[in-house]
Every structure is written in structure tokens, then in C-alpha cells.
Write a structure and sequence with these properties.
Elements (H helix, E strand, L loop, with lengths): L1 H4 L2 H10 L20 E2 L6 H10 L3 E7 L4 H16 L5 E8 L14 E7 L6 H6 L1 H16 L2 E5 L3 E3 L11 E5 L30 E9 H20 L8 H11 L4 E3 L19 E3 L4 H4 L3
Parallel strand pairs: 1-9, 2-3, 2-5, 3-4, 7-9
Antiparallel strand pairs: 5-8, 6-10, 7-8
The structure holds 5-phenyl-uridine-5'-alpha-d-galactosyl-diphosphate and manganese (II) ion.
């Protein structure tokens, strides 16, 4: 009997995504060539998604790194805004990775929400602070997250939630379309173009933003493992990909297509043209390169 062979995970996503309204946003692309949905405001019924995921007891880990000066600069805003907007109604565990555990702000968390602080070393090069997240994410999924959460989302800390970021974003393998490139022509996408790097690619589907990726634990772990392997192989060959971990992430999603894409409504910047953006759910915080990127 075919029906009983369908796991509940598959069942849930099939049923729910059948309710997506792909025609709701005529002016933007709502499905990839490989038939993955691209989630835009107006396509989904938030109540339906929440109800099903609450019923299924979906649980979500949110990982974030706040190392060195990024802790004081961004962490409190990131967490307090997540409390207001990220996966409300579901079980959420924050994993905060930092070199200064004592300085993590104490917040009153909502019901079913908890926070875990994990000590990490501060790499001296900022490129390594960013790239080595992949190794820590993989290790922590293996040791902790997979025993507690179905899904894991990995975010940059220099961001603030501004609107609902809910269960419609959950999927097996979730990629974020970069706000700066969603209308850009192929040739202008900033993939790594150096054949010596493992991240090298000549063409791709979209330009994805490493500030946000997620999915089922097993999928995110294989993404993180793949990227980390590429990063380490590059180090041995004395090359570094153009946009570090982001280049490797783009290569991974080119080889292993994401099953769900988030429109730039899910990770917007402050400056791009807002034409197609109906809701801002998460926004890049202002960059203070002058003070934060000096050694
Ligand atoms: C990073 C760059 C320069 C100086 C400091 C840091 C830094 C980053 C740091 O001192 N402490 C720290 O915790 N981080 C973490 O790495 C933090 O979570 C931050 O959000 C993340 C990525 O660094 P960020 O946000 O400065 O990089 P972006 O916004 O330019 O990011 C894109 O490109 C990066 C690779 O160059 C990553 O792929 C990132 O995921 C992308 O959004
Ligand atoms: Mn960032």
C-alpha cells in the first residue's frame, strides 16, 4: 500500500505545499525550474502552516555566532527581535556560539523557547570566523541539535527580525535568495570564478545568501560538511573563495538543489529597490565596518 510508505514528514510537506498559491504573485517567480517553491507573501496561509507544524510538534534550532565585537554590536537586537517574530508557536532552541559566554544578554524567553550558549574560539582572521562556522554547525547538529530539533536554521547575527518569519519557511533544504541579486543577470552573480577553488562555478541557478540557510538536520549537516571540506581543501591549495563560505554554499546548492527557496522578503537589505517586497521579515543591520572590521 503506497500511502503507508509515505513518511509523516513527506506527508506534511506534500499536503501543506499543495495549498500554496503560485499565481498570487504574478510579477515575481514563485517556482524554480526544478519545481521548488519560492516563498513570497500572499502565497501561503500562515494559520494553516502553523496549525500543521504545531500539530506535528515541529521543533526548530536557530544557530547564530557572536564572536568578538559582534556580540555587543548585534546579539541583543537579533535575539529580542527573534523572540517577537521567529517561528512563534513552535519549539525553538537558540544556539549562541561565542568566545565570551558571560556577556550573552539574559533575556526573558517565551514559552517553549530556550537558549544554549556554546563557547567557541575566536579565529584571528575574520574570514575564518565566518568560514569555520560550517565546522561548528556540523559538529553541533551531530552532538546536540539532531536529538532535540527537526529543523535547523543558521543565520548571520548582523540582522533584525521585522515581521513574521514563520513555519512556511520550513523545508527539507532551504536556501535564501540574496537581496542584491534577485533580478541580476547570470554574468553578474558573484560566484567564485577561480578554477583553483573548490567553490568554482561557471553558471548557477540563483545567487544565494549565506546569511540564512536551513532545513532538516541531516540536510544542513551535509551542506555544512560539504562547505567545510571545500574550505579546507582550498586552504591546502593556498586559495580562498571570493566570498568565503558563501561561495562554497552557492556551489553546494548548485550541485544539490534546495527544495525550498525564500524570497528576499525573508532577508532584505536597507538599500535595494523595494518594488517587489510586500513584507520585510528580516533586515540586514547597518554595517559598521570602520569600527567592527579593524583589528
Ligand atoms: C566578520 C567580518 C569582518 C569582521 C568580523 C566578522 C565577524 C563575523 C566577527 O567578528 N564576529 C562574528 O561573530 N562574525 C559572525 O560571522 C557573525 O555571525 C556574522 O554575522 C557572520 C558573518 O560575518 P558578516 O556578517 O560580517 O559578513 P557579511 O554580512 O558580509 O556576510 C556575507 O558574507 C560572509 C562571507 O564573507 C558570510 O558568507 C555571511 O554569511 C554572508 O552573509
Ligand atoms: Mn552579515
Amino acid at each position: 500500500p503506497v500511502a503507508s510508505e509515505v513518511t509523516s514528514e513527506e506527508n506534511l510537506s506534500i499536503n501543506l505545499d499543495n495549498t500554496l498559491n503560485f499565481g498570487a504573485r504574478q510579477e515575481v517567480e514563485t517556482r524554480t525550474s526544478w519545481k521548488a517553491p519560492i516563498i513570497w507573501e500572499g502565497m501561503f496561509d500562515p494559520k494553516l502552516y502553523d496549525q500543521k507544524h504545531i500539530q506535528k510538534k515541529s521543533s526548530v534550532a536557530l544557530t547564530v555566532f557572536a564572536v568578538g565585537r559582534y556580540l555587543d554590536a548585534y546579539l541583543k537586537t537579533f535575539l529580542t527581535s527573534a523572540e517577537r517574530h521567529f517561528m512563534l508557536g513552535l519549539q525553538v532552541t537558540y544556539y549562541v556560539f561565542t568566545d565570551q559566554p558571560d556577556k550573552v544578554p539574559h533575556l526573558e524567553l517565551g514559552p517553549q523557547r530556550s537558549l544554549k550558549v556554546i563557547h567557541v574560539e575566536k579565529h584571528s582572521r575574520w574570514q575564518d570566523i565566518s568560514m569555520m562556522r560550517m565546522k561548528t554547525i556540523s559538529d553541533t547538529i551531530e552532538s546536540e541539535i539532531r536529538h532535540r530539533c527537526n529543523y535547523v536554521f543558521c543565520l548571520d547575527v548582523d540582522q533584525e527580525f521585522k515581521g513574521r518569519f514563520g513555519s512556511e519557511a520550513l523545508g527539507d533544504s532551504v536556501a535564501q535568495i540574496h537581496a542584491g541579486f534577485f533580478k541580476a543577470p547570470q554574468q553578474s552573480l558573484t560566484y567564485d570564478r577561480n578554477p583553483k577553488s573548490k567553490a568554482f562555478m561557471e553558471s548557477g541557478d540563483y545567487y544565494y545568501h549565506a546569511a540564512l540557510f536551513g532545513g532538516l538536520c541531516e540536510h544542513v549537516k551535509s551542506l555544512a560538511d560539504h562547505c567545510f571540506l571545500g574550505i579546507m581543501e582550498d586552504k591546502q591549495n593556498d586559495v580562498e573563495a571570493l566570498w568565503h563560505d558563501e561561495s562554497h554554499l552557492n556551489k553546494y546548492f548548485w550541485l544539490h538543489k534546495p527544495t525550498r527557496l525564500l524570497s528576499p522578503e525573508y532577508c532584505w537589505d536597507q538599500v535595494s529597490n523595494k518594488d517587489n517586497i510586500q513584507v520585510i521579515r528580516l533586515i540586514w543591520a547597518p554595517k559598521h565596518y570602520d569600527t567592527l572590521r579593524t583589528k
